[in-house]
Structures are given as C-alpha cells and as structure tokens.
C-alpha cells in the first residue's frame, strides 16, 4: 500500500468520528448520563489520533495525487488548508475530551461545563470536517467540483436517445 492508499484508509474516521461523537455527546447531555458522554469523549480522542495519522499520510498522498490528470495544485492546497484547520480543532477536542473523561471519573462539578465546551468545539469540528471532506473528495471526484463537468448527464441523455431509437 502506498501513502495515498493509507491516507484514504485513515482520513474518514476524523470526519465520521466527530459527527458521531457530537451526536452521542448531545445524547449524553440530554439524558445526563456520564457513560454516554464518556463514549463521545473516547470517539473524539480516537478522531484526534486518526487526524494525526491522516495529516502524516497526506504529504505522501499529495505527491502521488499531483501527478494525476485533472488534479491541480489549487485543489490540493484547498484540501490541505481545510485539513490543517480541522486537525488543530480535533487535537484541541481530544485534549478537552481527556479532561472531560478525568472530571467524569472524579465526579467533579466542572465536568458538565467541559461537556458543553466539548460540544461547542465538536460543532466547529463538524463544520470543518464537512469542508475538509468536500475538498478532499474534489481531488478525485470531478463531478462535485464547483466548476466540474459531469459525464453522467450526457450518458443519461445518450441512453434515453438510444432507448427512443430502439422503440422505432
């Protein structure tokens, strides 16, 4: 497996883990259940670790991707910038989560405050994760680029035309 493959293996969990973790943390806050909150904290910590792995495989993936057709330095740069912002937020969220776990175990009165801080940071993380995922997808999926062209529409038109010709 090359660096691009490793990058694709690890880069989805920071996004998915943050989204799932936020939902679980909200559930923990609604139900006032520390076990549920701790589950979210664990997801956030794992997301931060996978973010680290994703950042460390990104450079090698860039070296491979920049040689591919229809991949520009601008597309890669936009993804890299978004990923760096997300990584910083997830590292911070991971640190908050470690504190949250500790405070929950010690039944500290400030544990709830940390939960709300984690929820806020996670919401920012979800926003940045969406940007990072979209810009990463644009590297190889030209159909989702803002100025991208799709061949699916032409293929559907051609298929419809062929179907009409077959009826004649």
SSE diagram, text form:
Blueprint: H1 3-10, H2 12-31, H3 34-65, H4 73-105, H5 111-140, H6 152-167
Helix pairs in contact: 1-3, 2-3, 2-5, 3-4, 3-5, 4-5
Put the structure in a nutshell.
With 168 residues, this protein is an all-alpha fold. It has helices at residues 3-10, 12-31, 34-65, 73-105, 111-140, 152-167. Helix 3 runs antiparallel to helix 4, helix 3 packs parallel to helix 5 (111-140) and helix 4 packs antiparallel against helix 5.
Q: Summarize the helix and strand pattern as letters.
A: HHHHHH
The backbone outline, from C-alpha atoms, is elongated
Total number of beta strands:
0
User: Ends: how far apart?
Assistant: 51 Å
Outline the biggest β-sheet.
Answer: none
Rg measurement, Å: 21 Å
**Percent of residues in beta strands?**
under 5%
Outline the low-pLDDT stretches: 150-166
Structural class by helix and strand composition: mainly alpha
């Amino acid at each position: 497996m090359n660096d691009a493959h490793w990058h694709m293996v690890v880069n989805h969990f920071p996004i998915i883990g943050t989204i799932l973790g936020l939902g679980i943390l909200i559930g923990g806050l609604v139900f006032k259940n520390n076990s549920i909150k701790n589950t979210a904290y664990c997801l956030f910590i794992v997301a931060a670790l996978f973010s680290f792995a994703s950042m460390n495989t990104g450079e090698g993936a860039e070296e491979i991707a920049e040689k591919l057709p229809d991949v520009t330095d601008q597309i890669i740069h936009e993804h890299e910038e978004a990923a760096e912002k997300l990584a910083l937020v997830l590292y911070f969220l991971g640190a908050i989560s470690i504190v949250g776990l500790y405070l929950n175990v010690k039944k500290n009165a400030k544990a709830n405050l940390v939960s709300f801080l984690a929820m806020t940071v996670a919401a920012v993380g979800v926003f940045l994760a969406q940007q990072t995922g979209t810009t990463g997808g644009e590297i190889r999926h030209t159909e989702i680029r803002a100025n991208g062209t799709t061949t699916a529409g032409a293929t559907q038109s051609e298929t419809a035309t062929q179907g009409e010709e077959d009826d004649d």
